[in-house]
Amino acid sequence: MDHLVFIMQTSFPSAYDAPALVAYKGAYSLLTEDGEVLHLSAQDVRQNLQNMPCPLVIHTPALARRLDLPPPGQPAPWLDLLELFAFVHPATPVAPTPRGLALALGMQDEDIGAAEADLLPRLLSLLLTNLARQNNGTTAEHLAALTVRLGQAGWIWSGTVAETLGLHDKLTPQGKLPETMLQPGDALRIWRFLPKWEETPLPPPPASHPISPVEAREQLTKMLGEDAEIRAGQADFASVATGAFEPRNVRGDPAIVLAEAGTGTGKTLGYIAPASLWAERNKGAVWVSTYTRHLQRQIEQETRRLYPDQATHRQRVVLRKGRENYLCLLNMEEAVNTAASRPAGITIALIMLARWGLATADGDLFGGDLPGWFGDLFGQGNLIGVADRRGECIHGACAHYQHCFVEHSIRRAREADLVIANHALVMAQAAYAQAGMSDDADETDDPSAPSRYVFDEGHHLADAADSAFSAELSGLEAAELRRWLLGAEGRRSRARGLKRRLDDLVVGHPKLETPLEAALMAATALPAPGWSSRLGQEQADEPPPPEPPEDIGLFPLEPEAPQPVLENPTEVFLRLLRQQALARTQEGGKQHVYAALECDLHPLVPDLAEAGHLLARALTRLVEPLRTLVERLHARLEEDAETLDSTTRGRIEAMTRALRRRAISRLDAWIAMLSALDTPPEPDTTPSHVHFIRVERREKQRMGEQDVGLYRHWLDPTIPFAGIMAIPAQGMLITSATLRDQQTNEPDSDNAEQAWEAAEARTGANHFPSPPLRASLASPFDYARQTRAYIVTDIDNSSIVDLAAAFRTLFLASGGGGLGLFTAISRLRGVYDRIAPTLEENGLPLYAQHVDAMDNNTLVDIFRTEEHACLLGTDAMRDGVDVPGNALRLVAFERVPWPRPDILHRERRIHLSGGDPKSFDERIARLRLRQAFGRLIRRQSDRGVFVLLDRRTPTRLLSAFPEGVEVRRLGLADTARELAAFLADTERADQN
Questions:
Q1: How many CA atoms lie within 13 A of 323 on its CB side?
Q2: Global pTM?
Q3: Each residue of 437-474: pLDDT tens digit?
Q4: Are residues 5 and 158 in contact, defined by beta-carbon separation less than 8 angstroms?
Q5: pLDDT tens digits for 136-171?
Q6: Which chain regions cross the lipid bilayer (predicted)?
Q7: In this structure, which of 467, 520, 793, 852 has its CB flanked by the most CB atoms within 10 Å?
């Protein structure tokens, strides 16, 4: 039926003469078919949409939300230029705005103008010109085949694309592509066209030649080039960083450099210089670790100064993330095979993913080169459906193993000079390597395994370690483990259980079949489907209400049959945990349905200890056969060494690692946690761990449904961090702009020493045998001249009305370019709803994290591109966001960022504060304020204003601001006037 695309083509709207519609200054700019530009209200647009031809737009879902229209879905009803851009320029991120699209297509500012509706036909012309140029390239056959398939699915652009590609001339008389060309169905099977990785010998261990400070400076000069901005202190930072590359003298005692580099020092290039030089000289990789995706992407871009050639850069620099971030080709294949029975929108999404999959650099779905708005246009569930989010990877058993994006990155990292990762992955990899559970089968014994590390955003090491080394026995986690072991129960689903993944590895081997069957039977002690609905029931024998099917996009599930309710030991335990939490917390009534509640584990409510013992026995009955299965699988590698082929051997090795990581290590942690039920903490002693109960509603669950769990955190999470890094690491550079908390800007040796000691404690450097080398480099910026800072004294920031009025006033005074920071999502959303219409009317588009259906990177790209936009965000926007220039000229913080007053913080302030819990809290708040202020000035020419909307701000917190910054307390009106005057003076000075 391929010929139908051309029969249907006449029913598609003509894009060449279509009207165009964009949001513009609180209203809408409409280019009519006659070439007239009109400015209409939302009501006028809604009325006109019913009668006008299909318009050109940009970002259909966002426009529909602005117009208060229902989500359009796919096939989209409007001619969205973003969809065409995704087809013409796959793997090219772009800000999803008229100006962003124009810049991405090479237009200059003077040509873009006011970015009204008349810009869109010009963008269409550029896109179609670019598409036509690809018609004779290497991807021409793919373009033709995918266009035909898109036409079958009803994609609104397929007729225009087919005409541009001249597909009429390529068709056979039957209206089909010739058999000599790639066919539409085959074009979706991208794994056939992806390059294979080839196994190579492990590289030899790196040498240990040091790097001198002089050499680091020379490398930095070479990287910067003649026209680069000279930053005072950057060369000094490069010199100091060489200390992390000194040869290690004692096993378990790495060389550590703790370097605080003020904002603007240029620390990224400062450590890339010695790191790249060491890697080249010693033939080994340096791992650069960050906490936020913003900085990870920024570092990857900075390395292009060192390796401008694309091929060389790809060889020398590798970006590593967790497996769940990448396109899974096996899931993609299953989706393609079932697409014919799914809605057309899923087929369109798969085709767009196929187009991207052949162009992507590394297959990263989240934060890579797939545009962050892709999920908003084509369905977020479709992205999740083709990622390995459930840990079901079958490694060597997968038919696409040698094409796998993750396996490619693992092998490229072996040969790279710089590997850019994140704190969580680095800690997990180090821990897995110690336990023999690495992603890489050879990594445990790999002589070239990473030994030199750079931890950027070092102030977040404790947070990352807290997440990496904590344990959670909750309904959601236990149910996920059951799903991983048993697969889908009573559902049509892609979920592959353990028996299916092991498949023929155990069939015919009784020694393997017996422990596998025992484990699967014991897994029924974990929460059964529908557990959340039963959680709040008082009696275990009450029938559960029917549960709607889970929506996971590409793989929608059918409703499951009601499950018989038995005395499931995990569910009984969870129910008692919930009972204790509700009894011990202040909130009651309906509030607990929507808010997280916490209580201490001890003292226990009646029956909780017995329920915990029963659950511990049930988990032991599960973990022991799994352990036996792993041992016997390993034994088979030795017993059948002469007959096992390499594929089967690889599958066995991968499955044993997966069993230990996904199941055994987790079950061991849960059993250890349950043993804490019998050991209440001793008074006046310092515990190693903190145990508590939490009830909360998770984002994965439907409104009103709850999860409950028992949690265990290290009191000091930097202890396990130091424990796992001490052996592999021979040198570490830990750096940040906010390592130390200086309680005063007055120079004082005692205070300075205390600040360094606190920094060592926060980063874990105090747990290593030798003390770190300390270094501090001041920011080169003249903050007294470049900035102003205010505390607003006449608003009540506990009132959402006052808070919204303050943000609206400040954003209008600055003329946009404002970043609003919040400590609570609920307040962010409340302010957004109240101020967005007014700002839009004044030509200041407002975007918000947790409101707009785009990832943080895309929101920052929009903010950076649109000079008069405003952005609201939480802590992810407070740290690591780099927006130089006039696009960011105001940072407004809703209140002092005090630490969250939960049980974990309570215990840490008691035991880790040195007897001064008040100062412990203030140190955290000051460091967060320093991070927030650091977003404001990113280069010498920047000017900006920082406003704190908390009249109760203690004066002792003001040392968080750089030396020279005078913090003034004024009313809102006076603050707005001074803000506007300062920015106006700055603009005049720049013009002169």
A1: 19
A2: 0.90
A3: 555 544 444 555 789 999 999 999 999 999 999 999 99
A4: yes
A5: 878 888 898 999 999 989 999 999 999 999 887 777
A6: none
A7: 852
pLDDT value at position 396?
74
Q: What are the pLDDT digits (tens) for 257-308?
A: 999 999 889 899 999 999 999 999 999 999 999 998 888 888 999 999 999 9
Distance CA(980)–CA(945), nearest Å, equals 10
- 537: helix, coil or strand? coil
Other CB atoms within 10 A of residue 643 CB: 7
Is 812:839 a contact under the CB 8 Å cutoff? yes
For the chain, list the domains and their CATH numbers. Answer: 1-188 (no CATH), 213-321+417-437+447-470+721-777 (3.40.50.300), 783-991 (3.40.50.300)
* Count of C-beta atoms within a 10 Å radius of residue 945: 26
- Whether residue 43 contacts residue 132, with contact meaning beta carbons closer than 8 Å, is answered with no
Q: What is the average pLDDT across 854-882?
A: 88
Instruction: Band the pLDDT of 491: cuts 50, 70, 90.
Output: low
* Residue 499 token pair: 């028996």
d(CA 885, CA 567): 62
Q: How far apart are CA 569 and CA 331, in angstroms?
A: 33
- What residue has token string 């029938």? 543
Strand 707-714 versus strand 689-696 pairing type: antiparallel
Query: For the residues 678-703, what does the mean pLDDT come to?
Result: 81
Cα distances (angstroms) measured from residue 277 to each of 283, 423, 517, 921 = 10, 23, 54, 41
Backbone angles phi, psi at 114, to 5 degrees: -80, 0
**How do beta strands 286-290 and 255-261 pair?**
unpaired
Lookup result for tokens 């597909």: 167
Q: By C-alpha distance, which of 936, 827, 835, 839 is closest to 878?
A: 936
Q: b/e map of 212-250 (b: 16 or more CB within 10 Å)?
A: ebebbbebbeebbeeeeeebebbbbbbbbbbbbbbebee
Report the SS3 class of residue 149: helix
Residues 6 or more apart from 167 whose CB is under 8 A from it? 6, 144, 147, 148
**Residue 383: both structure tokens together:** 């992205």
Residues 544-559: tens digit of each pLDDT: 444 444 444 554 444 4
CA distance linking residue 140 with residue 957, whole number of Å? 61
**Residue 101 burial (CB < 10 Å; 0-12/13-18/19+)?**
buried
Q: Which of 734, 783, 978, 904 is nearest to 263 (CA)?
A: 783
